[in-house]
Amino acid sequence: MTNFSRFTTNHKVRPDDIDMFNHVHNSKYLDYVLAARYEQMDTHYGMSMEKFLELGYGWVVQKVEIAFKRPLGLGDHYSVTTGLVDINNRGCKVSFEIKNLKNNKLSADGWFDFVMIDLKTGRGVEVSDEMIAKYSI
Question: Which InterPro entries match (predicted)?
């Protein structure tokens, strides 16, 4: 079993993230993870989303599971820590944790299953050995 690196990105809850119950809307947590992965692909793996797009590929969510623990509120600073659980020629699984930085308590955790697609056809394609190597750090 491979142990993959985990990376953390910090952000702050914005006013447009808040729902009618005065905390972050559940859909925003998924946005937080996707934004963190986007940044981490560029800064830590050396193969950004733009590079995949240049090659004619994209990553799409096949499955996602999220467990909500504690709500985030307006102005809260939070961290998103992500890391690969597995990567192979069919796609990858990424786990995540979102923590409120004021108390370091878990707000949500879970995982995403991603598949790589050909942007022209919209069909799944194999992840190359070179891509797997770049992300297997």
Answer: 4-hydroxybenzoyl-CoA_TE, HotDog_dom_sf
